[in-house]
TrEMBL record:
It comes from the Bacteria. Belongs to the peroxiredoxin family. Prx5 subfamily. It comes from Pseudoalteromonas ruthenica. It is an enzyme of class 1 (oxidoreductase). GO terms for cellular component: cytoplasm. One of its GO terms (biological process) is hydrogen peroxide catabolic process. The keyword Oxidoreductase applies. Its EC number is 1.11.1.27. Pfam families: Redoxin (PF08534). This is Glutathione-dependent peroxiredoxin.
Length: 157
């Protein structure tokens, strides 16, 4: 599993937004920026939709006031699902990023097999990334929510 002080691996993602489909790289998303990246096991799932994503939506201004340049929500879903989920949740200002084949999630060692739920998914986590380097990491235990919440990340900035 990736640890504090380590650089994110090079990866390419899928992003569907108002400009259309793009494939931003790790470097494009994180170089020269302070970014909060949080990951969820699945879009439109109960805890992800009721607690995890909403916390980051509500606290966007506080993150910005603490020097965060962007907030990224990542899931092992496709870009169409991530865009629809973001629109459904009112996540304007949050980058809804797809790791469709889980290659990034596997590369950082935060993947889990949820065979009965959907196959390979991401563990629930949040991290603070400064210029591509993980400075803080908050990984949840299975079926838990709290340490990766927006409030917890804010309290540690």
């Amino acid at each position: 599993m990736i640890a504090q002080g380590q650089a994110l691996p090079s990866a390419t993602f899928s992003l569907l937004d108002e400009q259309g489909m793009t494939n931003p790289s790790t470097e494009q998303l994180f170089a020269g920026k302070k970014v909060v990246l949080f990951a969820v096991p699945g879009a439109f799932t109960p805890t992800c939709s009721a607690k995890h994503l909403p916390g980051f939506i509500v606290h966007q201004a506080q993150f910005s006031s603490k020097g965060v340049d962007s907030i990224i929500c990542l899931s092992v879903n496709d870009a169409f699902v991530m865009k629809a989920w973001g629109e459904h949740q009112g996540a304007q200002g949050i980058t809804m990023l797809a790791d469709g084949d889980a290659s990034f999630t596997k590369a950082i060692g935060l993947d889990k097999d949820t065979a009965g739920f959907g196959g390979i998914r991401s563990k629930r986590y949040a991290m603070v990334v400064d210029d591509g380097v993980v400075t803080q990491l908050f990984v949840e235990q299975d079926k838990q929510f709290g340490v990766s919440s927006a409030e917890q990340v804010l309290a540690n900035l």
